[in-house]
Amino acid sequence: MPTWNPWHGCHKLSSGCQNCYVYRIDQKHNRDSSVVVKNQDFNLPIKRSKKGAYKIPEGETVYTCFSSDFFVEEADEWRKEAWNIIKQRMDLDFLIITKRIDRFWISLPDDWKNGYENVSIYVTCENQDRADYRLPIFQKLPIKHKGIICEPLLEKINLRPYLGEWVEEIICGGESGEEARVCKFDWVQEIRQQCMENNITFTFKQTGAKFIKDGKLYYIKREFQHKNAKKAGLDFTGRVDFKKKIKVEEKQISIW
Ligand code: SF4
């Protein structure tokens, strides 16, 4: 499952950023996560092997900008170039997750129109406050494929005022890491219910490290967080069937 990180580093913006895994990993390597730098592999999607084939073969979903935020301020001058690379690989699907959807228009390519078919953008809504701010903006934007990520899910969230055909998928999950905050099974079920009411595909990606079910707090080791979420059997296929697409793998690092 290819990951393309055109730049690295970010600034903490909202509650969901508190235990950002980029900061956690960088800390181990004495790296300052708040300095945003363009990566050496900036051109990865258009790089070719010695035989001339693309290093990322056609048909892949490319997890884009997972060590930063695609719309972070420092990347404004690089983003047009990144969009241009994305445009050159219409045979790949680029999945972008952001907390900065309010910066979507900055450095957007002139030929974007209603969006590139090969770009899916997911907006993180970790709590009600951020859902109420980000979703009305997101809803109106010209993007071909839109999803919502409620991870780390920090409280019960009512997404109903915003849901409709424009949302293809909602993914939710708890928080991992030593400082993880709790996630409650009831909150996950509540979002699933909202998805079912709106025929939106729902994925319960991971429990997180501290999970409360039936009033009991469970401490769940990293290797079981995805498996336990799957075991709960909550995933629901709505009008867009992602089983036909490549899905987020269990071994993939936590999104946020
Ligand atoms: S990478 Fe994401 S979670 Fe981390 S600080 Fe940036 S916006 Fe927040």
Quick structural overview:
The chain has 256 residues and is of the alpha/beta class. The chain has helices spanning 21-28, 76-88, 128-140, 185-198, 222-231, and strands spanning 3-4, 7-8, 37-38, 61-64, 93-98, 119-124, 145-150, 169-173, 183-184, 201-206, 210-213, 216-219. A seven-stranded parallel β-sheet has the order 1-4-5-6-7-8-10. Strands 9-11-12 form a three-stranded mixed β-sheet.
Polypeptide structure, described:
It is built from 5 helices and 12 strands. It is globular, with a radius of gyration of 18 Å. It has one domain. It has helices spanning 21-28, 76-88, 128-140, 185-198, 222-231; strands at 3-4, 7-8, 37-38, 61-64, 93-98, 119-124, 145-150, 169-173, 183-184, 201-206, 210-213, 216-219. The chain has a 7-stranded parallel β-sheet. The chain is 23% helix and 19% strand. It has 256 residues and is of the alpha/beta class. The model is unreliable at 246-256 (pLDDT under 50). The two termini are 18 Å apart. The structure holds iron/sulfur cluster (SF4). Iron/sulfur cluster binds next to loops.
Main attributes?
7-stranded parallel β-sheet, 3-stranded mixed β-sheet, binds iron/sulfur cluster, 256 residues, 12 strands, alpha/beta
Explain the layout of strands and helices.
Layout: E1 3-4, E2 7-8, H1 21-28, E3 37-38, E4 61-64, H2 76-88, E5 93-98, E6 119-124, H3 128-140, E7 145-150, E8 169-173, E9 183-184, H4 185-198, E10 201-206, E11 210-213, E12 216-219, H5 222-231
Parallel strand pairs: 1-4, 4-5, 5-6, 6-7, 7-8, 8-10, 9-11
Antiparallel strand pairs: 2-3, 11-12
The chain binds iron/sulfur cluster.
